[in-house]
Structures are given as structure tokens and as C-alpha cells.
């Protein structure tokens, strides 16, 4: 048996398909079969699906941006140290949106979203970590927790939440 082969239950070698592309076939065997065309291409070439006017979702309200509107959201990476089933340690990353107190809001907590990166930097400072996402999924995700999204909020001038030194300290902490 050679590298890339393993013995099957009936005693025939089972070759890795990767080897079909990196080494020649042994004499007396036929070459790899012609790759099949992906079904995904059929869908891509068919064009976008025809959708009904509402398709179960109400249309946008006047003054409300479309669901797909890109936004910049204050957020930063977080990590959970855990173990695999076999006991090996693993660090699992995820993104945490930063929520802000808002006394005028009933819940008292809001998520900020900005339509441009410049607006985020102006409001929260150049050291503010952020992620780009779509407005619709953001609003749905935080809405499940009773949080609303404020789009392009006016933030009172003052000390930004994050300073450059905070970023450096955070980077050392998560290494």
C-alpha cells in the first residue's frame, strides 16, 4: 500500500481523490472521471427568483432604510476558552456588539449603527472597534434581546469609550 491509500473491507485499496490531481495514475488504470458540473451553477445562471410583492415580510416603512443597508457597528471580538470532546483546549471566537445606555429608550439599552465609518469615528473616536453588517440582521438579532438600533445617533461629545491604550491592553489580554 502507498501513501494516500487505505485497505477497505473487501481488500481493495481506496485511493484519495486528491492524488488524482497531483500524481499520475498507476499503469493499467483509467484516469479520474470528468468532474461533474455543480448544480449550484444551474441556480446562478437561472437568475434571481421571482418574488411576490411582500413574500411574508412587510415592505419598508417610509424613512426606514432597506434591510440590506450596510452599517458600521461598535463591536469587538470575545473568546471563550473551552475544550473539545477529547479534552483538547480550544479558544472559540465570537463578536460582541457593544450596547449603550439610553435614558430616553424604554429598555434603557440601544445598539448604535452608523451608515459610514466616518460617522462612527466622529461619534465614538478612532480607537473604537467595529464590524460591518447589514441593518436588518442586526436589528433582528438585538431585537430578540429587547434592544433597539439607533441609526446614526448623535452622541454627546466627551471621552470616547476606547482609547488607543485600551486597544493595546485588550490585544495583550486575548493573546
Provide a descriptive summary of the structure in words.
- This protein has 175 residues and is an alpha+beta fold.
- The protein folds into 2 domains: 42 residues, no CATH class; 105 residues, no CATH class.
- Helix content is 23%, strand content 26%.
- The protein is built from 5 helices and 8 strands, in the order E-E-H-H-E-E-E-E-H-E-H-E-H.
- The strands form 3 sheets. A 3-stranded antiparallel sheet has the order 4-3-7.
- Strand 5 and strand 6 form a beta hairpin.
- The longest helix is centred in the last third of the chain and has 11 residues.
- The two termini are 43 Å apart.
- The N terminus is likely disordered.
Which range best describes the helical content: under 10%, 10-25%, 25-40%, 40-55%, 55-70% or over 70%? 10-25%
Q: H/E series, N to C?
A: EEHHEEEEHEHEH
Mean pLDDT: 75
Strand content: 25-35%
Which structural category fits the helices and strands? alpha+beta
Q: Strand tally, please?
A: 8
Q: How many separate domains make up the residues?
A: 2
The profile of the biggest β sheet is: 3 strands, antiparallel
Approximate shape:
extended
Order of strands, main sheet, comes to 4-3-7
Distance between the termini: 43 Å
Our Rg estimate from Cα atoms comes to 26 Å
Are there runs of 5+ residues with pLDDT below 50, and where? 3-9, 14-24
Number of helices: 5
